[in-house]
User: Fold these one by one.
Assistant:
Number 1:
Amino acid sequence: MSEPGGPPVMRWWGWGDPAHPSTLPAHSLGFLHEELGIANSRRPPVALGQVRLATPALSEQTLSALREIVGAEAVRDEHPERVLHAAGKGYMDLVRLRAGEPEGAPDAVVLPADHDQVRAVLSLCARASVAVVPFGGGTSVVGGVAPLRGEHGGVVALDMRRMGEVLTLDRESRTVIVAAGVRAPALERHLGTHGLTLGHFPQSFEYVSLGGCAATRSAGQASGGYGAIERMILGLRVAAPVGDIELDAVPATAAGPGLRQMLIGSEGTLGVISALALRVRPAPDARAYEGVFFEDFTAGAEAMRALAQERTPPEVARLSDEHETRMSLALAAPGGVKGRLGRLYLGLRGYRQQGCLAILGFEGSPEEVATRRKRALELARRHGGLPVGGAPGEAWLRSRFSAPYIRDELLTLGVMVETLETATQWSNLGKLRGEVARAIAEALSACGTPGLVMCHISHLYETGGSLYFTFLAPRREEDESEQWRRVKEAASQAIVNGGGTITHHHAVGRDHAPWMQEEVGSTGIAALRALKAELDPAGIMNPGKLMALTDRG
C-alpha cells in the first residue's frame, strides 16, 4: 500500500530529536539542588568522533556475502552507524556512550528490505557463526539491543528501518498488516487518514517500531482502554534460523498452545518478526483527561482498584505517590515549591500537603466519554478523591513522551536517574511498593548517594496493577556501573521476593535475565531453551538476552 516515511533521527548519546530543548528551567535546578545537593555544573557527552570502538571483526568474505543479499549500501560499518547501534537507551547505556566508552558495538549494521532478505541474512550468519541482534527503534532500557556476540566470532545489528510499509488495511475487519519496521507515529498517521487508531502509545512512541513492541510485549500508556500489544496482535510472520513461522490473522483459535504468545515477548532470541497483523479501532471523537487528588497513596490505590474492576475503566489511569506528586508539582512552574503546593491545595480542606495526584483519561464518542467520566469521578469521590479539573490531565497529555528528554539533561547535570517497574495483585500492591522503595533507598544510601525514590501505578487490571519506580541520586563519579548494579540488584530481588513480576512492560533483555528462573522456574527455563534450540540451533539470535543469564552466583 504505502511507505509512511522513514524513521526520525535520534541523538546517538541520548534520547530523541536533536533539536528538542535540552535544558531545565532555573526553578527545576533549584529543586534538584535542594533535594539531591546537585550543583549546576554540566558534564556534556564527548564528541562523536571520540567514541572508542573495537576494530570490526567480520571477514571480507562475510561482508561481501551480506552485501550480495541486501545491497552494498545496506551493509554499513562506518563509525557513526556502529555507534548508533552500540546500545539502547538504558541508564548505563547512556552513561557509557556519553563517556565515549560503550561496552561494544556491532561489527556491521545490516538493513534488509524484505522478509526474504532477513531469511537469507540469518542463514548466512548461522553458517558463519555471526550473532544477530534485531534492531527496531533502539529504545530498549534493559539491554535488549546490546550487541553481544556470545561465543560467536562477530555480531551484526539487523536494522529493520527499510521494512516500514503498511501492507494491507481491512477496514471491515479492523485489521492492518504492517512490516515490522514501521514506526508507531507513522502507522498512527496512516491509520488516522482512515479514521482509525492502533491506540498503542508507549513512552517510546516517537521512535519505537511495531516489531519491537511485539518482541518486547509492550503495554502502552492507554492499555486500560485499547489493551496491551499482545491483545492487538492477530498474526505474525517470523524468520527463524531454521525456517519461517507464519500465523494468519484470526480472531481466535483453539489450535493448540498459543504459539503467537510464545513469539510475542521473545525479544529476538528465537527469530526476527518481519510482519504482523494488528487489530485497530475507530479513532476517538472526544477525549477528557483530568486530575484527581487523594489524601494518600493507600486511598488512591483503593480508588484505582475500584476503577479497574469497573466494566469500562479509563484508557489511562495513573496514580503518583506523595514523592512523585511533590516533584511533578515542583518542576511544573516557577516559584517556590511550598508556594506552588499551597496554591494547588488552596481550598482542598482536609487534605494534607503530601497528597497524591491521579490522572484519568477517557477516549471515545462524546456520549461515551461523558458517561464514563461521570461514573469514574463519582467512584473516585467515594474513595476520598477530589477532582481538580482538566489542567493536570491536559498537562500530562502534552508531556507524556517528554521524560526521556529530561533524563538526558539530568545526566548532563550529574544525576543518576533510572526507572524500573513490576506488577502484582491488589492485595499485595501496597506492601510490595514499600519493600521495593525501601530496597532502592537503602542501596543508594549504602553507596553514599542517598536519593529521591518515587512510584506511580501505571496500568490497571481487574486483579492487580503495575508499579513504576523512578529514582534520582547523585552519580558516583568513576563508579556509576557499581552504583547502578547494587541498586538494580537490590530492587530486583525485592520484587521477586515480594511477589511481583520482574518486568511488567520494559521486557527482560539482559538486565532482568538473571531473575528469569525465579520468574518462570527451572522447568520453564528448560522449555524456553528447548524452543530456542529448535528454532536457533546455532544460538546466533540476540545472545545474552531473555533466558541466557539465569545464574547470578
Number 2:
Amino acid sequence: MPDRLLKKLFLLLFLFLVASCVPVKKHNAGLGTEFSIKELHTDVDFTYKKLKKLHPNLYQYISKKQLDEKFDSLKNSIAVPMHAKRFYAALTPVVSEVRQAHISNSFPDRRFTKKERKILKKLNQDFYELDVAYADNGLWVTRTGKYDSILLGSQVVALGLETVPDILKRYRKTFPNEGYNVAFQNKFISKNFVGLFRKHEGFKDSISVLFMQGDSVFPKHFKRYLRDSSEVRKPAIDSAKVAKSKKPTKEEKAAAKLKRKQRKRDHRKFGHIARGELFTRNFKFLDSSAKIGYLNIRSWSNGPYQKFYRESFAKLDSAKTENLIIDLRDNTGGRMDEVDKLYSYLTDAEYVLAKPAKVNTRLPYIKGFYGPESGVFSVLSETIVLPYFVIHNLLKSRKTDGQLYFRYGYAKKSKPNTLNFKGRVFVLINGASFSASSIFASKLHGMKRAVFIGEETGGAYNGTVAGHFKIITLPNTKLNYRIGLMQIETPHSQQPDGFGIIPDFQVIPTVKDVKENRDPELEKALKLIRNEVD
C-alpha cells in the first residue's frame, strides 16, 4: 500500500476516534436543543440529496415530481425551530413516501456513562419480556417471560395515557411498507413492539400498561428491579430441609462436560436465540412415518448454517420424505448466501438466484464503511481491508445501457445440491416475511416449486433495495437514515409492481387463534398434504 494512502487512512481513523469521544454529559445536554429553520431546511435538503445519490431505485413507487413536491412542502411547513425528535416526526413520514421498507432511521438518544451501564446490567424490566401478536387491529400478549403468565392472551389496551390504536398509527408514520401492500407495518410493529416503544419513548424506570382479559380491564405497573431480587423471584429453597447433594463422580463430570460441549455445538448449528430459549433454524418430522418434514427458519442469520441444512436434507433423503413445509413467517431477512444454500436443496437443475444488482456507485461495499455505528475495532478492520474491497468492487461493477450493475455471486449459474429434495414443498408466509425471505419466496414462486399459505409477504415480489447499506447522519439534527445501495431481484417478476407474494391459500390468524395458541397456517398445510377438504 502506498505510504500516502496509508497516512490518509490512519488520519481518517484518528479523526474518527476523536469525533467518537463526545462526552456523555455534553451529548445528553444537547438532546433538547432547538434548531433554527435554516438548519432544519439544510437537513431536509441533505436527506433528499443523499437519497438521490445513493438509492438505485428511488422513484419505483413514486414519481420524481411527486417526491420533489413532498420535500418542498415539508420545507415550507417548517415555520418554527424544532428539536431533533420533533423534526424526526416531520421528516420521516416524507422519507417513507419512497415506500422502500429497508430505509430505516433513528434520532439522537440518551447515552449512559460506563458506571450507569454497569448498573443497568444488574436491572431487569418485565415489560421488555413481553411478546405480542397483531390480530383484528389489536395487540395480544403471546409471551410474558418468567412471570405473570396470567397476561397470556390478554389484549394490550393502552400504555400510559396513549391507546394502542394511537400508538400504532404514530409508529406506522416512522417507516414505510414495501410498495403498496399494507401487511408489513402491522406485523413488524407487533414483532418488535417493546423495542419500538423503547426507541420512541426513551428509557423508562416504570411503565403503566392497561390490559383487557375478556370483559375485565386491569392495569399492570412494570418497574425495574435487581435481577436477583427476592421480591420477584421464587422463594429460595430452605437448605436446612434439603439433603446435601452428592459430589459428582469422574464419570458424571465427564458426562456433564460432554453435554455442555454438545449444547454449545447445537447452539452454533441451530442459531441459539437467548431471549425465549429459541433457535433460528429448526427441523423436525411432523408425523411418525417421516413423510412430512418441517423446516422453520426465523431469520437468515445467526451463526453458521451449512451443517444444519446438510444434516436436515440428509434426513429427508434417508426417510424418503414426500412433503416439506418451510415456515418463513416473521422472518424479516438476513444473508443471501444462506438463501442460496437452501434453494440449492430444492431444485434439481442449474439455477440463477438473482440478477446483477442495480447500483448507483461502483463501490457499494465501501460506502458502508466508517458509519456512526462503527466501533474502534470495526474501523481498524475496515481500514485494513479497504484496498482489497476497492479492487473487488471495481472488478464486479460495470455499466450496461447506461445503468451501473454489480455482479455478486448469486447472479451466476449454480448447481443443485446432490441431496436436493424432490417432493412437494409448502411455504408458510405472512406480512413479516421480508427482504431475503421475499427473494427466496419469489424464486420458489417463479419456478412454481411451492404452494404458499398464509398472508401476502411484506417484501415485494419484484425485488428490494438492500444488500449493502450506507448510514447518513444529518449535519445539524444528527438524525440517522440507513439507505440500501443495491436493487436485488430474482429473474422472475409480476404485474402490477409493488406487491408481495400472494398466497395460494390465504390464512390470517384471528384473536381466537392467538388466545388458543392455534396455528391455522400450519393446520391448512397439513390438511392439503392429507387431502382433507375444509
